[in-house]
Give the backbone structure.
Amino acid sequence: MHFSCYICLSVLRGRHLLGKNSFTTNFILCYQHALIWSIIRYRAKGDETKEPPQIYGSNPIEVAWTVIPIIIVFTLFLVTTRSIYSLDMKEAGLPQNPFNLH
């Protein structure tokens, strides 16, 4: 028997390390079932050989859904960096503003 088939059957029988977690096994089986069903259900028919007309979107909307997430991620990066830096300074016992040493 092929090695991958052996692993697959072992997982289904619960003998393999991956099969110990029945939730994972059931999730994978449900996912594979849904994937195979959608491939069969929504495949192209014989008369659908030509390409449908292409519709182009709105450039401002496309720019917005690209730029807004970048701004959100950059803002989260700045907030996280500042808070981690301030925690490190407090733990090290260093002054909060190193330029005001007396």
User: Anything to note?
Assistant: The helical segments are 3-13, 22-41, 59-92. The two ends are 77 Å apart (CA to CA). The CA atoms of residues 90 and 96 lie 8 Å apart.
